[in-house]
Structures are given as structure tokens and as C-alpha cells.
Specification:
By secondary structure, the chain is mainly alpha-helical. It contains 23 helices and six strands. The chain has a six-stranded mixed sheet. Strand 2 (418-421), helix 21 and strand 3 (441-444) form a beta-alpha-beta unit. Mean pLDDT is 78; it is low at 315-322, 492-504 and 511-521.
């Protein structure tokens, strides 16, 4: 009876985690910049898109149907693995595995706002299964292992990660699989299946995200410094060889770490000392994001997390460490968090590269550690209160992700007969015209080209929509010049007084938004 109840509870946890992710899709008002790039990459068009925009050839700078732009997120050639890989090497800095998987999902289900979240939901559920298995390997009871997996599945940080078509759920899956195999390797270092599995997971992990290298390096470092265990240090060199084999195989599949490093250096501006405080704040907020998406709660929970972390060693029910599994868990949590934070704080990572998704390699360890800590310190009243408040905040934050954005998309997006977009930057244009009617005509070009081209206003009518993205060199000054060229027969030639915001820095304007200036009333 107890086994059946445990199985039913485990099934309910998995179902709840999947539904939390899937139910959050209707709340996606607009795609993010990065996930639009994911769809362009996964359909094999990243190189073609870049060449089209750079050369300023049609459909750039011409009145074309919306479909001529949207074809860049639709698969033209199925199973174009090499094209996807080569375009990523040339135009991006991410390895290809996630985009190959997304390609398969688009082949099966088509290109939709939910294509990436559907893939990520499947990856997250698999990760929960592996976290439970890792807990059992560490000597956790089945209920405690399920608690760790539940923390993973129900955290608002991780449900949020799954709603964006990016490779972080895949990175977490590879991390969890690597940990399960490594826990076996501690006791069966000569098991051929385990050794092959470690090389295979290293291959997949390295092709999922470059941060996987931190996980592999941490595992090797732990085995080298394990006190009093000379055999473990000898096996560390075996693990180093297995990891090296995985990375060697990854290079034959298209992994180019040197190119990715050069590309990331181009994205990272010089670090200024005045930014260190801001980056430190971002680190604390990202850490507390495991429990909450409310900023005030993040501040409080970040402090509570540190206090509880420091006090965990003083718990009366300290578990035995005879096999070093818990020491490994603590070491890897500190290692993965520490290196991610240090690279960000010192300016090696880009200024935007801190948030819940950038800690994907750390969250599996955090879930296992939090479950273990709660079990060992549960008799403390302060711990019960802290965990109760943290759990309630976590559940509330996850549930609030199910509520669609109040503003929604402007009605004018669905009624426009034509659209003028003042950017064709990768990751920007397609997400801005994603919800425009399929019959609409689109003119897309950089602001400077719109200002210089005398022909585009000839196709503007009363149902023409102007979408402006104040990014990538765009300015308010150019925006005003473009609006000043709006044909007078369609709308007054005045500056707009109101815009509908449809995303961070994204605005759309219709003729009805134009108001006469005081001097002309």
C-alpha cells in the first residue's frame, strides 16, 4: 500500500511539473530575442538570414508578404544537421545539440510559440527522474529523493527556464545524467558501461552548452582533492581521460570552443568597477530566484539562503559521509555556483548573463542539497518556518506564471494590412511580426535605411502599423524622422503621443495614435 501511494505521489509530482510549464505558454505575450534566434537556427536559416540582412537584399528593404520573412523560422530542408551546425559556428557561440532537437520537434509539430517549451518540458521531466535517481544513489530514502525532484520541477526559476526556447533545460539534463554516472563511478571505476556512459554524456553535455565544462572540471577537481583517498585521486586521471574522449568526439561533431570564446569576447564590454555592485546584486537575486520571482522576497530569501547554508554543518543529525557522496554534492554546488558567479562578477560573462537560466548547472545540486538539509534539520523550529515560507513563496510564484499578461498583444497587430518595422536585426524582426496577419505586407529595414529610402511611404495606408525597436543603434531621433514621412493622406504629420508597449523597448504605433501638436490645433 505504501509503495502504491509513493508511486501515485511521484506520478502526481511529474504531472504537476509538466502542467506548470505547459500552462504557462498562454502567458507568453511575445517571443524573446534569444528564442527567436533559436527558431532561426533550428530551421537551418541562420546563415541565410545573416547574409540577406548584411547584403541588404530582398526581402530586406522591400515591400514583401509576411510569409517571405517568416519562412526563416520554417523548415525548408529537413534534417539539415550540418547547415545548423555550420551556421552556429559562423554566426553564433552555442553548440548545436539543442537546436538539432528543436529541429526534430518543429518537424513533428510545426513552428509555434510553444514548440520550444514543449521540448523543454520533456527535458525537465527527464531531469527530475535523474535527480531522483541521483538522490537514491546518495543514500536518500525514496521520499527524500522525490522531494529533491519536486523542488526541481516546481521551482519558479525552473518553470520559467522551460518557457523559453533555449538550451538550459538540456544543460541541466546532461548535468544530472553526468552526476548519476559519476556516483556509480565512485564505486565501480572499472565498470565499462559506466566509463562509456561518462564519455557519452560528456559528448552530449559539451554539445549542449559550454558551461558543461565547469561540471566536468569540478568532478575531476573533487576526485583530486578528496582527503585520505589515494585511489580516488588515481581514478581522477581516468575520469580526466574519459572527459577528454567526450570532448574530442564533440570537436568532430562541430564543437568549436575557440570560436565561441572569440564570439563571447566581442559581446562583453570592458568591465568597469562601478558595475561590480550591480553585478553582485544580480547574483543574489538569481540565487533567490529558485524560490521566488518577487524582488523583495528575493532579497530576503537570498540572505536566508546564506544563513541556512552556513548553519547546515551544525545540524545535530549530520549524515554519515563514509562514501563522500554528500561531500561531493556540497563541493559541486559551491563549485558550479562559485565559478558562474565569479566569471560574471569579473566581467568574463556578458552583463546580461546572470539570472536563473544561467545557473542551470547548479540547480540540480541545489535541489538535492535543500532536500537533504530539510531532512537533517527539520526538528529546528526556525528551519521549519524558513522552509514553510520558502515553499509557499515558491508555489505562489510558479502559479502566478500561469496568469497571462494583463496587457496582452495590441489589437492593431491582428488588424494591420501592412507593417513597417525599423529593424531587421537577428532575433528582433521575426518576433515583432510573428502575430501580424499572414496576408499583411511587411517593409523591414534599419532606421537609417528607412530614412534614406524615398519609396516605402508609397504603400502606407490607414491600416499600416509602425513597429519600432529602440535597440541595436536605433534612436528616437530616427524614429521621429520616419514618423514625419508618414503620408498625410493617411494620418496627420505629427509626432505620436502614445504607443502600445508590447515588450521591453518594443513599441507599435497606428495612425490613431497621432495627435496634433499645440501649434497646429
Amino acid at each position: 500500500m505504501r509503495t502504491s501511494r509513493s508511486g501515485a505521489l511521484w506520478l502526481a509530482i511529474l504531472t504537476a511539473g509538466a502542467l506548470l510549464r505547459w500552462a504557462g505558454v498562454p502567458g507568453k505575450v511575445i517571443l524573446t530575442h534569444d528564442e527567436t534566434v533559436s527558431y532561426i537556427s533550428a530551421t537551418g536559416h541562420q546563415g541565410e538570414y545573416a547574409r540577406t540582412v548584411n547584403a541588404k537584399t530582398a526581402p530586406y528593404g522591400a515591400w514583401v508578404t509576411r510569409g517571405q520573412w517568416m519562412r526563416f523560422v520554417e523548415i525548408g530542408e529537413p534534417f539539415c544537421w550540418r547547415t545548423i551546425r555550420d551556421d552556429l559556428v559562423t554566426w553564433d557561440l552555442h553548440p548545436p545539440l539543442y537546436f538539432w532537437l528543436l529541429h526534430l520537434f518543429i518537424l513533428l509539430f510545426g513552428t509555434h510559440v510553444w514548440s520550444g517549451p514543449l521540448l523543454n518540458t520533456a527535458l525537465a521531466v527527464l531531469t527530475a527522474l535523474l535527480i531522483r535517481q541521483a538522490g537514491l544513489r546518495m543514500g536518500y530514502s525514496p521520499s527524500l529523493a522525490q522531494t529533491a525532484a519536486a523542488l526541481w520541477l516546481l521551482s519558479p526559476a525552473l518553470t520559467g527556464i522551460s518557457l523559453e526556447a533555449r538550451p538550459y533545460d538540456l544543460l541541466a539534463l546532461c548535468t544530472a545524467a553526468f552526476v548519476v554516472l559519476l556516483l556509480r563511478f565512485f564505486h565501480e571505476p572499472h565498470n565499462r558501461t559506466v566509463r562509456l556512459g561518462l564519455s557519452g554524456i560528456t559528448l552530449l553535455g559539451s554539445l549542449s552548452h559550454h558551461h558543461f565544462g565547469l561540471v566536468a572540471a569540478g568532478a575531476i577537481a573533487f576526485m583530486l582533492i578528496r582527503p585520505g583517498e589515494a585511489a580516488a585521486r588515481r581514478h581522477a586521471f581516468s575520469l580526466l581521460a574519459l572527459v577528454a574522449v567526450g570532448y574530442l568526439l564533440a570537436t568532430t561533431a562541430g564543437l568549436d570552443i575557440a570560436q565561441a570564446w572569440r564570439a563571447s569576447r566581442r559581446e562583453v564590454p570592458p568591465l568597469e568597477l562601478t558595475h561590480l555592485g550591480t553585478r553582485l546584486e544580480a547574483i543574489f537575486l538569481a540565487l533567490a530566484g529558485f524560490f521566488s520571482q518577487f524582488k523583495i522576497a528575493k532579497y530576503l530569501l537570498s540572505v536566508a539562503f546564506i544563513v541556512l547554508w552556513v548553519r547546515q554543518r551544525r545540524c545535530k543529525k549530520a549524515a554519515a559521509d563514509t562514501n563522500g557522496e554528500r561531500r561531493f554534492l556540497r563541493f559541486m554546488a559551491v563549485w558550479s555556483l562559485g565559478w558562474t558567479f565569479l566569471l560574471f562578477w569579473l566581467g568574463v560573462s556578458p552583463a546580461h548573463a546572470m539570472g536563473e537560466k544561467y545557473l542551470a548547472i547548479a540547480w540540480p545540486f541545489a535541489a538535492l542539497l535543500l532536500a537533504d538539509f530539510a531532512h537533517r534539520a527539520w526538528e529546528r523550529r526556525s528551519v521549519k518556518w524558513a522552509l514553510g515560507i520558502g515553499g509557499a513563496t515558491m508555489l505562489l510564484s510558479s502559479l502566478l506564471r500561469l496568469v497571462p499578461a494583463a496587457a496582452g498583444l495590441p489589437v492593431c497587430l491582428n488588424t494591420a494590412s501592412s507593417v513597417v518595422v525599423d529593424t531587421a536585426a537577428r532575433g528582433e524582426l521575426l518576433r515583432l511580426v510573428w502575430h501580424v496577419p499572414g496576408t499583411a505586407m511587411v517593409y523591414a529595414a534599419a532606421q537609417a535605411d528607412l530614412v534614406a529610402d524615398p519609396a516605402w511611404p508609397g504603400r502606407v495606408d490607414r491600416n499600416t502599423l509602425y513597429i519600432s525597436r529602440l535597440r541595436a543603434g536605433n534612436t528616437r531621433s530616427h524614429q521621429k524622422q520616419i514618423l514625419a514621412r508618414w503620408p498625410q493622406g493617411c494620418s496627420p504629420r505629427h509626432q505620436p503621443s502614445a504607443f502600445d508597449k508590447i515588450g521591453a523597448g518594443v513599441w507599435c504605433c497606428t495612425p490613431d495614435d497621432f495627435q496634433p501638436q499645440e501649434s497646429e490645433k
